[in-house]
Amino acid sequence: MQGASAILRRLSPVRPWFRNRTAASWKADAYAGLTNATIVLPQGVAFAIIAGLPPEYGLFTAIIVTVVAALWGSSQVMVSGPTTAISAVLFASLSGLAIPGSETYIALALVLTFLVGVLQLSAGLAGLGGLIAFISHSVIVGFTAAAAVLIAVSQLGPALGLPGGTGGVLHRLTGIGADIGAVNPNAVIIAGVTLVSLIILARISRRLPGYIIALVVGSLTAIALGAEASGVAMFAPLDAALPRFGAPALDMDTIGTLLPAAVAVAFVGLLEAISIGKSFAIRRGETYDSNQEMVGQGLSNLTGSFFQCYAGSGSFTRSGLNAESGATSPMSAIFAAGFLAVLLVLLAPFVRFVPVPAMAAIILYVAWKLINVAEIRHIVATSRSETFILGATFLTGILSELDFAILVGVVASLSVFLNKSAHPLVAVGAPTEVNGRRVFRNAEKFDLPQCPQIRFVRIEGPLFFASVEHVEREFRRMEEKDGFKTCILNLKGVGKIDLAGADFILSEARRARAHGQDLRLIAANPEVLTVLERLHCLDVLGPENVHPHKSDAIRPAVAAAADSICASCDIRCFRECRDKPGAERHAAESTASA
Question: Which residues are listed as membrane-spanning (predicted)?
C-alpha cells in the first residue's frame, strides 16, 4: 500500500500539466476536442446500444467519464469514455439478469459501474499498476476479437430488419437463420448505403466526421425509401439531453451478484487504458504512471455511476484521432466533452429520424475495425505460447461468455508466465568469431567445439524453487552427453535466486569436488551476490571461485586443467589455452595446414 502523501498526491485535482498551458496549446486542444466530439456523438449512441442501454447513456459516459479520467489520468492524449469491449462485457454480464434497456437493467448497469470504479481506484491507490505487466497483450487481442464477433453478430439482425436476438454468437446466428425469410429489403439497402458511405469517408480522411455524415446519408436514404412506413425501425427520441445526478441503488444482494462481473469489467478497462496510455507515451517520449491511470479510471467510473454513466475506459480510436489532431494535453479531452454536451442539446431532437439499420451498419464497421488482423498474424507467426493465449481467450469468448473469456485468458497468460519461469534457458556456450569479435554462442545450436575439461553454462531466467528441478535435469543431461567437467556457471542472466537455488549451487559445487573438479560462478548482480552471501554459498564456494567477468573465471579454470589432457588437445577454444602444454605443436600444425 502506498503512503498517505502518495495517495493524497494521486487524488489531488491539481495536475502537473496545468503549469504548461500557453495560448497555442489552448487553441490546439480546442481544435482536437471539437474533432473528437463529432466522432463520439454517433459512437456513444452505438456503444450504448451494444451495452443494452438507451442511447443517451453512451453520450453521458462520453461527457462525465471523459472529463474525470482526463483530469486524474496519466496520459497526455488518451481519451476515455464508452468503448466497444467494455460495452460488450457489460451486455454479456447483465443481459441474463434483466431485459436490456429496462429500468432494472439500467439500475444494475449503474451499480456495476460503481463497483468497477471502487475496484479500479482501490487498485491504483494500492500501487498495483505493475501487475498489469504480467498479463499478456494477447489476452486483450483475443478478447477484443471475440467481443467484435459478438457485436457484429448482434447487429446482423437489425441490419437485415430482423430482431437482434439474445444469447451468444452461435445462438444468435441460429436465430437469424430461422428468420431469414423475413428480411426487410429497405433495411438492407439503408445498412448497405450507410456502410459504404462510412468506408469511403474513412479512406478520404480520418478527420472527417464520417460517422455523422454516414448516419445522415442513411437517414436520407430511409426517407427516400419511405422506410418507416415499410416497417423499418427508427430510434426513439432521447429521454434527456444532459446527465442528471442520482445515486446508484446499492444493496448487498445486488453487489454480491454483480461483483464477479465488476472484476472482469474493471480488469478489461484497466488493461485497455494502460495499454493505450503506455503506447502513446512511448511514441511521444512522455512519462507514464500506471497507478495514476488506475486512479483516474477508477474515479471516472465511480463519479460516472452517479451521473447516468456506465463503465468506460481508454478509447484507442478517439485517442489516436486526438493525437493526430494536435492535442497537447488532457485539456483536449475536456474540450471534447464540452463540445459534445453542446452538440447533444442541439441535435437531440433529430435522433428520431435515424433508422436502426443505419446505426447497425455503423456498429458493424466499428466491430470490424476492432479486430487487429495485423497483430493476430504477428502473434501467430512469432510465438506458440502467445498464440495459445490468444486462441484460448478468443474461443472461450465465442463459445461461452465474454467475462469468462477474460478469466481464461488471464489464467492462460499466468500459466505461460509461470511455465517460462520454471523452465529457464540452460545452455552450454563456446567462444567463436562473429564479425571479427570473439563471442560466446550456444554450442549445441551452432555445433561449436567445446573444451574437454571445462563446461561453460549460462542460465537465463530465475533460479528458484520452481525452476531448480528443470535446471538440475539439464545439468544431468549435459553430464550424460559429455561426461563430468569443471563447470563455469554464468549467473548474469539470473535475476532472482532463492534458498532452493542456493542449495542447488552448493550441491553442484560438492558434486564437482567429489569428482576432482570444481564449480566457478560468474555473478555481477548485487542482489544475486547478496542472496548468495546471506545463504552462505560464498562460504562453501570460496570467494576465489566467484568472478565478475567471463575472462576472470576462465583464466583460473584453464590454469587448473590437467596438462596431460591439454597437451594432446586440438580444440584450444579459449585464448588462455595458449599458455598450456601442446600450444606450440597446435600452432605449428595450424600454420602448416594453412
Answer: 30-51, 57-74, 81-99, 105-132, 139-162, 182-204, 211-235, 255-274, 333-351, 357-376, 388-418
Statement to judge: residues 379 and 445 lie in one domain: no
> What is the C-alpha separation between 44 and 57, in angstroms, rounded?
8
For the chain, how long is the longest CA-to-CA vector? 102
pLDDT tens-place string over residues 418-476: 888 899 999 999 988 888 788 889 998 889 999 999 999 999 999 999 999 999 999 99
Long-range contacts of 301-304 (CB under 8 A, 24+ apart): 301/65, 301/113, 301/114, 301/116, 301/117, 301/120, 301/269, 302/114, 302/117, 302/118, 302/121, 303/64, 303/65, 303/68, 303/117, 304/60, 304/61, 304/64, 304/65, 304/68, 304/113, 304/117
Distance CA 593, CA 548 (A): 38
3-state helix, strand and coil shares in percent for the chain, rounded to the nearest 5: 65, 5, 25
388 lies in the same domain as 475:
no
Residue 135 identity (one-letter amino acid): I
Q: Is residue 249 part of a domain?
A: yes
pLDDT of 221 reads 93
Q: What is the pLDDT of residue 481?
A: 87
Which amino acid belongs to residue 263? V
The answer on 179 and 119 residing in a single domain is yes
**Which has the closest alpha carbon to 291: 139, 74, 117, 115?**
74
Torsion over CA: 531, 537, 538, 541 (sign): negative
Give residue 592's pLDDT band: very low, low, confident or very high (50, 70, 90).
low
More confident residue, 112 or 397: 112
Look at phi and psi of residue 572 and say left if phi exceeds 0, alpha if psi is from -120 to 50, else beta: left
Whole-number Å distance between alpha carbons of 401 and 146: 10
**pTM of this structure:** 0.70
Query: Are 62 and 150 members of one domain?
Result: yes
The 3 state secondary structure assigned to 442-486 is ECCCCCCCCCCCEEEEEEECCECCCCHHHHHHHHHHHHHHHCCCE
- pLDDT reported for residue 43: 78
* 558 close to 576: Cβ distance less than 8 angstroms: yes
Specify the DSSP class assigned to residue 542.
Answer: -
Please tell me which of 11-15, 234-238, 317-321, 448-452 the model is most confident about, judged by mean pLDDT. Answer: 448-452
